[in-house]
Amino acid sequence: PSTEFKISVVKINYDLNDTEDKVRFVSEAADALVGITDAVEVDAYIRKVAEQTQISKDAIYSEYKKKSQRAVKMRTPQQNIPPSVNVVRSKGAPAAAPQSGGTQRAEKMILNLCVRNKRACAIAQKELPSDDYSTELHRRLAKMIYESRSVGEEPNPAVMLSYLNGGEQSEASAVFYNMEVYEDEERAAADAIRKIKLDRLDERLRHEDDPIKMNELIRLQTELRRKK
C-alpha cells in the first residue's frame, strides 16, 4: 500500500477534534513515514498531517525523526542472523514439511490476533515461536510482532509494512487489516495454534514408518485434542 493509503487507514481510527486522538494519530502517521528515503516526500506528508491536525510541522518532524532513529535499530531476520542460518539446516534436523493452506490461514489469524490482543500474543509467543511459522513472510511478521510485545510496545502495522516490498505489503495488509470479530480472542488464538500443531503431527504421521515413533506422535495428538 502507498504511504497515502497507510496514513488514511490510520486516520479513520481517530477523532481529530480530540486532543489525545490527534497526538496518537501523529505518532502513527510518523510511523508510516519511516523508511521513506525521499526527503521531499516526507516533508509533503508532514505538511499534510500538520494541516489536518493543526499541530506544528516542527513537532511532527521531531516525532518522525525519533521514530526513524528507533527504526534504524530494527533489522529484518535476514540482517540479524548469519546468511548460513537461512540456508543451511542444523545437522540432523528434519526438513520442514510442506504446509497446507489451512495452516497458513491459521497463522494469518494468529498474527492478526497478536497485533490486536496482548494476551493472545503471549499465548502465541509461548506456543508458536516465530521460527515455527510456515512461510518466510509469516516468520518475519511474527518476529517483529513478538519483539514489539516483548519490550512493552504495541505492534505497529505501518512500521512493519515499511520493511516489506510491494508483494509482501499486500499480503501483510490482508493480515493486519482483517477486522473479523471473535467472541474470545485468546481462545481463538489457542485453537488456531492447536490446529497447526495437529496438522503438523498428521503430516509427520503419514510419513513415519517406525512403530515407536508413530505411537509417540499419536500420543501427542491425543494430548492436544484433550486440551480443547
Q: Can you describe this structure?
A:
Helix 2 (19-33) packs antiparallel against helix 3 (39-53), helix 7 (101-116) crosses helix 8 (118-127) and helix 12 runs antiparallel to helix 13. This protein has helices at 3-11, 19-33, 39-53, 57-72, 77-80, 83-87, 101-116, 118-127, 136-150, 157-162, 166-176, 185-206, 211-226. It starts with a helix and ends with a helix. It is elongated, with a radius of gyration of 21 Å. Mean pLDDT is 82; it is low at 74-98. With 228 residues, it is mainly alpha-helical.
Compact description:
With 228 residues, this protein is mainly alpha-helical.
Overall geometry: elongated
* Structural class based on helices, strands and sheet pairing: mainly alpha
| Poorly predicted sequence stretches spanning 5 or more consecutive residues | 74-98
Reading the helices and strands in chain order gives HHHHHHHHHHHHH
| Major sheet size, sense and barrel closure | none
Mean pLDDT: 82
Quickly count the helices.
13
CA radius of gyration: 21 Å
The count of β-strands is 0
Strand content: under 5%
Distance between the termini: 38 Å
The portion of residues assigned to helices is over 70%
Features of this protein?
13 helices; mainly alpha; 228 residues; single chain
Task: Annotate the secondary structure layout.
Elements: H1 3-11, H2 19-33, H3 39-53, H4 57-72, H5 77-80, H6 83-87, H7 101-116, H8 118-127, H9 136-150, H10 157-162, H11 166-176, H12 185-206, H13 211-226
